[in-house]
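Regression report. Comparing outputs from two consecutive submissions.

Submission 1:
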Amino acid sequence: MTSATKDSRSEKGLARVAQSLASWTEKWFPDAYVVALAGVVLVAVAALANGSSPQTVVNAFGDGFWDLTAFTLQMAMVVLTGHVVATCPPVARLIDRLATMPQTARSAVSFVAFLSMSVSFLNWGLSLVFGGLLARAIARRTDLRVDYRALGAAAFMGLGAVWALGMSSSAAQLQATASSLPVKPIEVSTELKALMPPQARPTARHPARTPRAGPHQPAAPSRLLGTAVRR
């Protein structure tokens, strides 16, 4: 019997349901590595069933794995630099000072969530460690009684809510690396730009604008493309 099951006996209502779900997840939910292996096997079997040879599947897996090295290194550096910054002595002192600011349990949870999401815009790896350390510092206060589970959930708000909008998101890292962008979208955007009239092409100082079609002026290619897609 796990500790979550023992604690669920003393809980009531929704908290008891949450403890039961946590106990089931700890026991039956597989690790991320197991899910990744299952995905590789599933894709390989689907490729073989589609007519690909085993050698083609193996070559595609090997070539595709090394194509992700640049992006993988970027994500690893985001996590490592975030951990280094969040655990350095100046930031640790800042976290201790911030932990003394909330005066109620509700304000403490909201405070952790706000700072976690704010830091996540800059670096989601920093938000991941910073939010956890801030939640722990607030939970250690003896003059404030707050649910540590709520603080933990608030600490993950930066990673679960706004990280994709920040400068260190996966989309931002892919856009910052030309070699990471697929070839087809670049070819399509280049062809569309060539079809646009000169006055409507985007420049460094003026974004693209779709001109209005007059009685003697054909519609812009982008508008024709949108009409074809809707049809």
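Submission 2:
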Amino acid sequence: MDTLQGDIDALEREKTELRERVKELSRKTLMEGIVRQSSAGLIIVIFIIIIIIVVIFVLVRWILRQSRPNKAGLKCPCVDERTDIRPSTIFL
């Protein structure tokens, strides 16, 4: 009978140890997943910000190029004779 009780106690200790290991591994896996997801999200946000900056830069260059008079002294083709609306005033 004492042998059976000793086996039961050993199994209970092993069960407790295994539960603690599962909890620790679950926390570790959860934290690794959170870190992986947050770093991926951060990379996406940085990429989107870079794209927005490039688009703004291209638009500003296009607006500046359209508002500059050409070297021949001709009117810019973007100016409408009737309304005199330039694209730069539309975007602002």
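Expected: both submissions complete independently.
Actual: both completed, but the second showed a warning that disappeared on reload.
Relevant detail on submission 2: Residues 2-91 form one domain.
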